[in-house]
Amino acid sequence: MTILMSILGSKALSLFVILFQEAAKPDDELKSAFTITEMVKNLGWVALTVIIILLIMSMYSIAIMVERFLTYSAAKKQSREFAPRVAQALKNDRIEEAINISDKHKKSHLAMVVNAGLQEFRAHDASSDISGDEIDASKRALQRAIAIKSAEFKRGLSGLATIGSTAPFVGLFGTVFGIINAFTGMKSAESAGIGAVAGGIAEALLTTALGLAVAVPAVWLFNYFTGKVDGFIVEMDNSASELIDYFLKNRTRQLKS
After folding, report:
1. For residue 12, is it within any domain?
2. How far is it, in rounded angstroms, from Cα 137 to Cα 118?
3. Residue 40 falls within a domain, yes or no?
4. Would 235 be classed as within a structural domain?
5. Contacts of residue 139, Cβ cutoff 8 Å, sequence gap at least 6
6. Distance between CA atoms of 214 and 64, rounded to whole angstroms?
7. Chain centre distance of CA 59
């Protein structure tokens, strides 16, 4: 890859030197060669294919960004409402009320974890004594809930990572063909005017710019969402730990009585 980039860089440098020399000439073609309309007209089928692929990748990444943002916002909002209410219910040993509160906050990651632990705890609540095995069962239920919710939060992020890492190379593919077409046009034309290389330049510039425009937001949002997910996982782990402490205190209280 380093060798390829160096070769492309040297070729591109020589091309732009020629273009600079041509730009200094009072050529009428220079006025219209790099308008948007002319660039689009001069695109080849390879450049059009690359642009279509990049546009599809862009639409897919935007859809993931919007969907994940709405999901994380809803989880954060409902968790803020859920936490103090369920804490008050558990403080008063109202298990059923805490479960009902959890059922009303379907989008909250904390509610899902707490609900899983409380459901397992309630299954053994009728017994006179809560054994260590039953508490271990509650721990496993909490771990399963955390694993499921974590996987749900990470859904779509791998697609963002893939787009962020591959979009520049898709654009580079179009750039390579653009440079090839530019030198081919210079070779086949009788004069080395800028009109002979305008098509290749358009392909190289458009595909490179579009590839970067698709990749950069995808990488930024992937890192941002990954940090959000890590924060959610920490919150779920803390909630699970606090719930286990509640179970242990409840067991100790039963043993003393």
Report:
1. no
2. 11
3. no
4. yes
5. 240, 244
6. 13
7. 13
Per-residue model confidence as pLDDT tens digits over 147-200: 999 999 999 999 999 999 999 998 888 888 777 776 776 666 555 555 555 556
Separation of alpha carbons 202 and 42, rounded Å: 7
Q: Residue 126 belongs to what domain range?
A: 60-256
Asked whether residue 112 is domain-assigned, the answer is yes
Structural element, H or E, at residue 167 = helix 157-188
Q: Find the largest Cα–Cα distance for the chain.
A: 102
Counting the structural domains of the chain, the total is 1
What does the DSSP assignment read for 73-133?
Answer: HHHHHHHHHHHHHHHHHHHTT-HHHHHHHHHT-TT-HHHHHHHHHHHHHHHTTTSSS--HH
Q: How far apart are CA 71 and CA 232, in angstroms?
A: 12
Cα dihedral 242, 244, 246, 252 sign: negative
Q: What is the C-alpha to C-alpha distance for residues 73 and 67, in angstroms, rounded to an integer?
A: 10
pTM to 2 decimal places: 0.74
Going by pLDDT thresholds of 50, 70 and 90, the confidence category of residue 127 is low
Amino acid at 142: L
Looking up tokens 């358009």, which residue turns up?
Answer: 202
Mean pLDDT on 99-104: 87
Cα separation, 76 vs 164, in Å, equals: 26
Residue listed under structure tokens 């916002």: 73
